[in-house]
Amino acid sequence: MHSTRVLFARSVWKGPHIVPLPIIRPKPGETVKPIKTKARSATILPNFIGLKFQVHNGKIYHDVTITEDMVGHKLGEFSP
What is the residue-wise DSSP string for 6-75? Predict the structure, then answer.
């Protein structure tokens, strides 16, 4: 048994749980509204860095700005 594979909740051959989210890259000097989502189980990808999400916690939406340290974690981990 591989010790690193035991740590992950999802099997290696299936890959990470990725939810298709509408990612819109802002042009320089342009503001974009945060992306509202209820997909707390979505894995944060490297192309999400710098984007703002509003993650639903069951009652309200919490603002989450994605940084480099969050890559590989789930969106729900950062919404109390």
Answer: HT-SS-TTT----------PPPTT---PPEEE--TTPBPPGGGTT-EEEEE-SSSEEEEE--GGGTTSBG
Tens of pLDDT, residues 22-62: 777 777 888 878 889 888 888 888 888 888 999 999 999 99
The Cα–Cα gap between 57 and 38 comes to 8
User: What does pTM read for this prediction?
Assistant: 0.70
Encoded amino acid at 18, one letter? I
Task: Say how many Å lie between the first and final Cα of the chain, rounded.
Answer: 35
CA distance 74 to 51: 15
Pair of tokens at residue 21:
């989210």
